[in-house]
Amino acid sequence: MKIIDKWIATVSLCLALFCVFFQYAYAQEGDSGWKIEEFKSSINVSEDAVLDITETLSVDFGTQQKHGIYRYIPLNYYNNSGQSYKLKMKVIAVTNANGSPLPYESSGWFGKKTIKIGDPDITVSGKQTYVIRYEIKRGIRFLENDELYWNVTGNDWSVPIESARAEVNFPTKGGALKTLCFSGLAGSTENNCVAETEGARAHFLAQNLTPGEGLTVVAGAPKGTLNPPSKAALTTGFLFDNISYFILVLTLIIFYFTWRAHGRDPLVNKAVAPEFAPPDGLTPSMMGVLKDERVDMLDISAGIIQLASRGYITIHEPKKGKDYTLKRVPSATKPLSDFEKMLLTSVFSDTQSKKISELKNNFYVHIPALKSVLYNEIMDKGYFEENPNSTRVRYTLLALLLPIGMMFLLGLLTDSITAAIICSIVLSPFALWFGFSMPRKTKEGAEALRQTKGFRMFIYTAERYRARFEEDKNIFSKYLPYAIVFGLTGKWAKAFKGLDVNPPDWYVGSHPFDTMVFAHTLSGMNANMGAALASHPQSGDSSGFGGGFSGGGFGGGGGGSW
């Protein structure tokens, strides 16, 4: 953590030094010594809420030789909930005072439109006039009023503005306008400006603005003066402004169809029905993997009970406390799977007896190898197309990293980080579901799962088949490990209540045998054993009328000379 903090501090320092150097270099470039004598803006608002804006900049370069000026206007904004909102701008014409076209370049990078006016091969000096006409869509806010909240001049000019004027014209059908204006540095609430209205027209004036100061105006017509955008247009605009939401929807669609094509198990044309014996060759641990497609601690601890039921281990109940003792039976000869052999060796090592407490903080080192062997056994039976754990990890990483990385990249490029964060949070559980759903069984695996579900159904409804249990007095202990892995120990034991059942010969207790008491005891022991096996050693939208300011609203920006 300290290394990360140092890295962040170093980057922050470098950025700060870069900004200081940039400002110093910019000042040394000489973009001063000239002035804007008048900045005049004429804003005509159509009934469809489109702004037709003409800016006339009368400048005096003095004796300086300049190619012209550049003007930039921000287009990316955020609403009150932090969602991105983008204006649409189209440059219509750039001329001089006589209406003659001037050469210019228009570019739109980093959320702003820049208009660079002038000829790189020609310089001018003295008084010059630049007329910029452009169109803005989505620049009206439909609140209590149909409101224009517009930063006329912008606050990023490095030269003074002797006079800033604005004229706003709304459709005459709406009636009188409500107006406000703000001047000064960005964030200022000063009203060193004049606002006058004539019905649907408003005039604004601010004088003697120093570098960094600007004029912002607010003009509100009665609600209904303008035609608001349709819900479809608002939704479409929102999705384009916050493209991460579009990526979220697209990603979820891709998840679904990818799962259908590559993750869904083959259909088995046979209903699940009670199976009165486990499928051939399937141990309780294998069934645990088959039903949820992963190896967990319950599968491993159930494997130990299975070793006991097959005669390889005896379990001795303590007289006091919960520290059970596992004892190995050297004379056992029944064949074991590779997983069962490794599990037996992992529990006892070179001893013949082990208390459960002795496995704590020691057994965990064997878990990765045991999981790997159990996955290999289920694969050797041909039940999965590929290792379910590898499939799950691969698809989970792809589902998380690829779309979320794309969201944040586009969020940075389009100033819509809030949308990227929200979509990433929403996507994460779906990505986890997708990854965990992608392991695909073969037809044989799907059939084995159907039989496993059928055997589980038998265990769950065992009370219906009590007559069968009279014929096999060892069936209780024989199928007990399966009941454990299904989480149905209590249900299984209840089915034998009152029956003459042989107690497990692999369990040495200190109380008379009763299936319900035994099931409760064994469940507690199994939980303690699972915890011991897994344990690790510890290591150290507000309105301009409701409180505006200079530089607020849409518009703004600034410019300079070149």
Verbal overview:
- The chain is an alpha+beta fold and 562 residues long.
- It folds into three domains: 33-236, Immunoglobulin-like, CATH 2.60.40; 242-271 and 386-439, no CATH class; 273-385 and 444-538.
- The protein is built from 15 helices and 22 strands.
- It has helices at 2-29, 231-241, 243-263, 284-292, 297-309, 338-348, 356-359, 367-380, 388-414, 417-437, 443-460, 466-469, 475-486, 489-494, 515-534; strands at residues 35-45, 51-60, 69-74, 76-78, 84-86, 88-95, 104-109, 112-117, 127-137, 141-142, 145-151, 161-169, 178-184, 194-198, 201-209, 214-222, 313-316, 325-328, 353-355, 507-508, 554-555, 558-561.
- The strands form five sheets. It has a seven-stranded mixed β-sheet with strand order 6-9-2-1-12-15-14, with no helix packed on it. Strands 10, 11, 13, 16 and 21 form a five-stranded mixed β-sheet that branches.
- Helix 4 packs across helix 8 (367-380) and helix 4 (284-292) packs parallel to helix 13 (475-486).
Assign the structural class, choosing from mainly alpha, mainly beta, alpha/beta, alpha+beta, or little secondary structure: alpha+beta
Biggest sheet character? 7 strands, mixed
Average pLDDT, rounded to a whole number, is 86
Based on CA atoms alone, the radius of gyration comes out at 38 Å
Percentage of residues in DSSP E strands:
15-25%
Number of domains: 3
Helix content percent band: 25-40%
By DSSP (H or I, 4+ residues per run), the number of helices equals 15
Oligomeric state of the chains present here: single chain
Strand order of the largest sheet: 6-9-2-1-12-15-14
Rough outline: elongated
Distance between the termini: 46 Å
Low-confidence stretches: 1-30
What is the tally of beta strands?
Answer: 22
